[in-house]
Amino acid sequence: MHANYHTHTFRCKHAAGDVDDYCEMALVEGLKVIGISDHTPFPDNRWLAIRMNILELDEYSKSVEIARKKFAQRGLKVYKGLECEYCPEFDSFYSNTLLKDYQFDYLVLGSHFFIQNGDYRCSYGEIFDKESLSAYTQHLIKAMRTGFFKFVAHPDLFGNSYLDWDQNCIDASILIIETAVELDIPLEINACGIRKGKMNFSNTIRYQYPLLGFWELAAKYGAKVIVNSDAHTPEDIKDSVGIAYDIVKKFKLNLVELNL
Predict the structure, then answer these.
(1) Max Cα distance, the chain (Å)
(2) pTM exceeds 0.85
(3) Range 64-72, long-range pairs (CB < 8 A, 24+ positions)
């Protein structure tokens, strides 16, 4: 592993460390590239308990830009990113404010929330039947089609609450994977799910995510894949990524470099 594009800072309120801390650890671990991608704030400060305030966006952006110059002298490439929920009402915020005005290098699609019957649901715990899984899938696909996002973080996140690997999971996975192939968007094997450990789901011991069935299908369809640690502390920079790469090897997945 020489690059990690999925990291968080203290600003999201469920991580530790600042930009420089992650950059220093990246050098210790031998990385050549790091992307800082904290959770995106929104103009109305929704879901504020798990992300920075919109008033912090400017300081966050500047802190990554300062680190970019500082660590370039030490051989580390630093990219400025954000992990985003997709809210259709904020399309202009993604395109104009984040990508144009702030000139973020990339946005990550991480659907921790999705729309079902006009309301936002949480992807942790509220994907438990065919209808909610379908709503998550359609929301993710709609977001992918916007063109705002460089890759999809933990596309198999539904595995944390949808207990069985059944035909509904297969159908949802194929739709996500086929869309990723069509749009040429990489899908992320996320090591944070591995760090959470295996659990008993309907008498099957497995990770919440990555879901092996999902990645077996991704191999079948030739989807592009990247591996990230989804670091919430500097020490997470490379933690459990070896197991993620084992999944790549197991299914002979199409591992790619992120094109920024």
Answers:
(1) 52
(2) yes
(3) 64/19, 64/36, 66/19, 67/19, 67/20, 67/23, 67/36, 70/20, 70/23, 71/23, 71/27
- Check which CATH number belongs to the domain holding 122 and give it: 3.20.20.140
Strand ranges for 64-155 from DSSP E:
77-84, 106-109, 113-116, 119-122, 151-152
Pairing mode, if any, of strands 77-84 and 33-39? Answer: parallel
In the block, tokens 């990339």 appear at: 106
The helix (H) or strand (E) run that includes residue 91 is helix 91-92
Type of residue at 125? G
Nearest to 133 by CA among 167, 168, 86, 175: 168
Residue where the block lists tokens 């921790």: 112
224 assigned to some structural domain:
yes
Q: At 25, list the tokens.
A: 């650890």
Q: Encode pLDDT of 80-138 as tens digits.
A: 999 999 999 999 999 999 999 999 999 999 999 999 999 999 999 999 999 999 999 99
**84 falls within a domain:** yes
- Where in the sequence is the domain holding 228, given as residue range(s)? 3-255
Strand, helix or coil at 173?
helix
Q: Is residue 260 part of a domain?
A: no
85 part of a folded domain? yes
Q: SS in 3 state form for 112-137?
A: CEEEECCEEEECCCCCCCHHHHHHHH
Tokens, residue 148: 């705002």
CA 229 to chain centre: 9
* Number of compact structural domains in the chain: 1
